[in-house]
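Sequence in, structure out.
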Amino acid sequence: MDSMESKEFERELIKKLIDSDEEAFCELYALYKNRLMYFAMKFLKSKEFAEDVFQDAFASVWQNRRFLNPESPFSAYIYTIVRNRILNLLSTFENEKKLKESILSSAIEIDNETSQSILDADLSAIIEKAIENLTPQQSKVFEMSRKQFMSHKEIAAELGISVYTVQQHISTSLRLIRTYLTKYSETYTDLLILLFCLNS
């Protein structure tokens, strides 16, 4: 497929996507996944973070599909979304790193290993409580992804749902868990979010 054919093919996918065609969404998702993942990983140095950025970007595409312009390059649109999310994430990482260092350095008479064990234990307990607030389907998808390390495609095939639905369940679960963490003090919540992301 030459450049002109590729642009026309993509334009037709965008038109279908605007009409809520899920197959067109999945085609665009597959078409851009490798290059956007590579782009995100260059900056984030983490496949997991790159995957989250990619998924979040395409969730935004679906949610705002009716505002897409088939005559405007989709690549510029999606790369802008991904770039902005990378910049936000990098800014968050820097702030979280400083918070974590400050909290750990203030511990008295507790060595680093013990301190980290306490934090990990507290984190696990809190996240388990947060997961209890998910719907049964969200919880199932989340655990298959984060604990069984199954790909979105594998989860979709096993549960008989679309890849997009899997992506939505995971994005919603992450959002709900982070919201749950705001019940705790601001500083500790920031640390929990950082540790959760690193272990997810």
